[in-house]
Amino acid sequence: MTTPPLRVTVWGEDRHERVDPQVAELYPDGMHATIADAIREHHGDAVEVRTATLDQDDDHGLSDEVLAGTDVLTWWGHMAHEDVRDEVVDRVHEQVLAGMGLVVLHSGHWSTIFRRLMGTTCRLRWRNEQDRELVWTVDPTHPITRGVPQPIEIAAQEMYGEFFDIPVPDELVFVSSFSGGEVFRSGCTFRRGHGRIFYFSPGDQDYPVYHHPDVRRVVANGVAWARSDRVQRAVPWIDRRDVGQFEAPT
User: How far apart are CA 249 and CA 239, in angstroms?
Assistant: First the structure.
């Protein structure tokens, strides 16, 4: 039996690219397009990748129909977390609990959807001074580390440092160190409901991090890992007006 293609939606805020010439030069088609290309590059015909952006439409490109046809959603946001409509966050939250995978990238740690799923502030220390980042694999048996060197060296990147206010990860995959001496839990997995979540921190908009071949491999590996092994995912009975309702209507 042929395995159906992995259906991936790459969501990007796409604001920096349109207002900051430096970011536009690094990512002329948008960061979301570069991330989507990385996934296609490593998975070829085994994936179907679409992109969606914050200003695409009233649903930010994440309608019920799009999410129902998405096995794994990747999320990058930074300057406009509060512009994501609550109804869309509710929709994504429901689908993750039902089994849709979620890969949260860099400053997506501060997104409404990630904070809701974590149940914590998700605050961290940061400094944007072109620090060298070394991404160390701490679980070399994990599928997300497949083909990844030890360590990944990123010549210039925004520093993220501890304390990172997240729940204890189900699996700690990567830890980063920086030229200033800071460390950070840069690759973590979580399970919420039936959904798998992977958080990976490298990827500030001011640097060409998503062109880095090893970062691209990690993102692609993370997407493959986040795919649910559930045969079917459906939440048709959930009434968003009453999220406390736990019984399907008869």
Answer: 10
